[in-house]
């Protein structure tokens, strides 16, 4: 008689084969459905053991491990404690007796062990926490061959990672209790074990061409990194806050970090192992460099920082491995942590600071010159220099910081490399992407450069303006007029970068106490940009450049933040320079330039969503400040906007097809700003209000007439004209909701009919 267990085993293995190997979608879906039913069956546990013991394929073993993980993870009808203990012991014995399992099977079984241990962390049997003996559990693996050592280390690494990660199927409070208990009872022992094993490995002549020894070193580094990356206090930091991250090492770990051999271990490993391992080593160093300041007293912190800076210096003196992009990225992160976690006053007291800051400056300059190598890593270098430059006014140490020497070099390297990138992108032989295409990344870097550039600002301005004014003026007029007309772009690309950078350094004024001389320099830069704007705007009817216009808007936004409003002294040297060069004698005349640019953009760029959106945001920002608004409403251009807000004058209002203007909320922004401007002097002037509403009334009348006839496409009529009008109406509601006039206008037959539809 045939064994029914063998029959069911064969059926399960066949389903596994269909699930993991077949290319037929229908067959795979049917197998997946059958296996879901198997997972929920009462005899799933016994059949999983059968698959592990007698299964002939790795896929059946994977299925068994996956199903068991689901069984021990379920919150309703959980497995009894004795059964979970048996599964844990069975898994450990299974791994110990089968070293040649497929990698994915071993990983699945280790995941099962980690899940059982985490969820049973507070379970007791005869006053014994039976799932808290992870180090004891893996001891037998660590005392055996390299293959078994890998399994033992991987178990600890996966367990640490599993407990560190919140499980959405279980309460967060339970997760934090488990993580806190694990941190206090086991984590330091695991970290110490991993460091000791790394020391043993580094003391031997490892043959990293041997796959097993290669794997052991990799798993040890992952284990160490998981320990250092543990969420010690439950803050769940992520990559978005990477530059602000502090590792909250418990006080009980002090001994490990006071011992300089711990830090030295990782610097020695970096120099002794192949570059393929180095990113993990550097990641560990990043975490070590980020340990909380309060872990040390002042003397201990100075000693720790000295060892850290010595290690960084050694890497900079032997930069060969940094040609690997991953190594380069992690090293840039390490450099950024030098300032995010330590004060400039502490850095300058390090014995070899002058040499280190010189090496860092040279490394930064070289990195900026090779901007195409790892563009996402530059953020960390600029972050370092931004923090250094911002600290200059507050440093009290008598030792020289030397930033007056090196920040101008960094600024110059950034500016010249971006200008030179234009030619490289135009040749584009290597398929490089234009950095200007990523406006988010550009803005992030410019925010950092704004502070760096204001340090030794005279040198920054000299670089931007140049020493030969007539030569630069001739360059702008000749190059731009020729190349815009012909559609060529080298000069336009360079000017785009210059406008972005000028806007950034003007915005950086907020970071430093500005002098009259620096305000005069700002005035010189502003004059150059406004002259360029006059030239480009005069040619918009023939041709324009979207990137240059976006740079102009970025400049205007920075200019507005710093020099428009109550906080600005109108006797500023900037306004004096604007008066001398451009005849702009006061803020009202400067505001007229802003409004003129806004109207020009809305006229010529109405079908370009990025420019339209940013232009309207500029208008919206200008309409917020009360003093500037009162000046704005007196301008004839603003009165023109209030009385002529139609598609005839502002083409974006005539776009009803969302495929042409993806963000139709521009209308809401536009009418929100107009509402603010109208409200300034509206008072009880009903005639002025009715004059303002005339264009909208006419639009609603056209819609009402469309619906009152029988010859129209109902679906098209509903989807196209009304949605834009609703967005306009929404913008007005921000300011008119308390006015009886608005409700009176809504009650007009044409409006009420349109809104009811």
Automatic annotation (TrEMBL):
It is found in: Cytoplasm; Nucleus. One of its GO terms (cellular component) is nuclear pore. SUPFAM superfamilies: ARM repeat. GO terms for biological process: protein export from nucleus. InterPro entries: ARM-like, ARM-type_fold, Importin-beta_N, TPR_XPO7/RBP17, XPO4/7-like. This is Importin N-terminal domain-containing protein. PROSITE patterns: IMPORTIN_B_NT. PANTHER family: EXPORTIN 4,7-RELATED, EXPORTIN-7. Its main location: cytoplasm. The lineage of its organism: Eukaryota, Metazoa, Chordata, Craniata, Vertebrata. It comes from the Eukaryota. GO terms for molecular function: nuclear export signal receptor activity; small GTPase binding. Residues 31-97 form the Importin N-terminal domain. Belongs to the exportin family. Pfam families: IBN_N (PF03810), TPR_XPO7 (PF25795). Keywords: Cytoplasm, Nucleus, Protein transport, Transport.
